[in-house]
Specification:
Elements: H1 2-13, H2 18-22, H3 25-31, H4 37-43, H5 51-60, H6 67-70, H7 81-84, E1 110-112, E2 115-119, E3 122-126, H8 145-148, H9 155-163, E4 170-174, H10 183-194, E5 201-206, H11 208-211, H12 218-226, E6 230-236, H13 245-256, E7 260-266, H14 275-287, E8 291-296, H15 311-324, E9 332-335, E10 344-345
Parallel strand pairs: 3-4, 4-5, 5-6, 6-7, 7-8, 8-9
Antiparallel strand pairs: 1-2, 2-3, 9-10
Helix pairs in contact: 14-15
The structure holds pyridoxal-5'-phosphate (PLP) and iron/sulfur cluster.
Residues 131, 133-135, 138, 140, 176-177, 207, 236 line the site of iron/sulfur cluster.
Length: 347
Amino acid sequence: MRRTHLLISERAMIPNTSELRQVPTWQSQLARAINDPVELLAAVGLGEEWLPAARAAARLFPLRVPREFVARMRQGDPHDPLLRQVLPLAEECLTAAGFEADPVGDLAAMAVPGVLHKYQGRVLLTVTGACAVHCRYCFRRHFPYADANPAADQWRTALEYIAGDNSITEIILSGGDPLTQSDRRLSQLVRSLESIPHLRRLRLHTRVPIVLPDRVNEEMLAWIRCTRFKTVIVLHINHAREIDHSVRSMAKALKAAGVELLNQSVLLRGVNDSPETLASLSEQLFEVGVLPYYLHMLDRVQGAAHFEVTDSVAKSLMRELSKRLPGYLVPRLVRELPGMPGKISVM
Ligand SMILES: *Cc1c(COP(=O)(O)O)cnc(C)c1O
Ligand code: SF4
């Protein structure tokens, strides 16, 4: 946001060229994201011994990480908690019993293309398959997005479905990551949704503002400010070190626009599986105006077994966390299972 503000004042001073308008900074940042393991290893100061595995694993699920996020990683540390979330490792090529391609039953819950209706009162729209960052543990790594993303004209079917069920009061824009899409596309979708009278809340599940805080620019804030919906943004931060000054400014701007900010994390071995790390995350979130919402048990997706934390370890972590923090800073430990009416509390 700091840089965005700078850009806006620069624009005020220089003649507004169409080039400046067509290429907002976040879109060029997104286009410049690192997708070559050689480049990532060089950027974090790691040697070539990591390369063959990174290449092999990146063939299963491509590497993708914005430079702005890489800049928050420690140099020369293969165990850096931010790096571990994005660096393809040899372990991803192993198969593990019980780890599947669609562990949460998304394909069965697709009501019409692009609409996941699993829980009462809320539906999730898979706005896009694209993400700004590819998280190695993600359950969507095998998701057939091509079948799930309605082109602009096909939203009609989704809108008809939602309009025809007045028990639905909340729309969740997800994906992929909805904030990889242009504000024009998003605001058009939100405007169409606003014409459905029984909808009251709009929620976005996104990680883009963490890896690319500049995404939250004036154009986005403009449609957020003027929607009739109560708006909630659920961010995805796994470690306190993901929060830097640019994330802080981004969160402040969203709060000022009237957005409720929540966070969901995934409990990941080697990233955030200690009471100190989780407590520090909750405290840093609160500092920037975000409340912890869910701490997810890993979805058992092929290629992510090395991130798994067992139930008993997770429960003892939560007991320790509850001792250290006020109740409102303790996220709910949950798991998602196919066919259940909501996320399942693990304790
Ligand atoms: C997780 C999820 C939601 C949201 O659940 P909440 O408990 O309301 O946060 C809604 N729909 C689908 C399909 C989901 O996977
Ligand atoms: S859907 Fe979320 S967790 Fe999965 S790769 Fe995209 S940003 Fe990461």
